[in-house]
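Q: Structure tokens for this one, please.
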Amino acid sequence: MSRGDKSAYTDKQKRKAEHIEDSEREKGRSKEDAERIAWATVNKQDGGGKKSGSGRKSS
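A: Here is the predicted structure, written as tokens:
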């Protein structure tokens, strides 16, 4: 079962997580572990479900 709201993620991020999860399942991981790894990977690569920056501009 999914832990947390995934509505902030883009469709592309959701597809990426699904693909990673499928790949992990093929390696023999449990559904829970595969899902956890998939979302952790998406978060690491894309910075999570953020839709915008912090609001601060760099000079």
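A few notes: The chain has two helices and no strands. Residues 11-46 form one domain.
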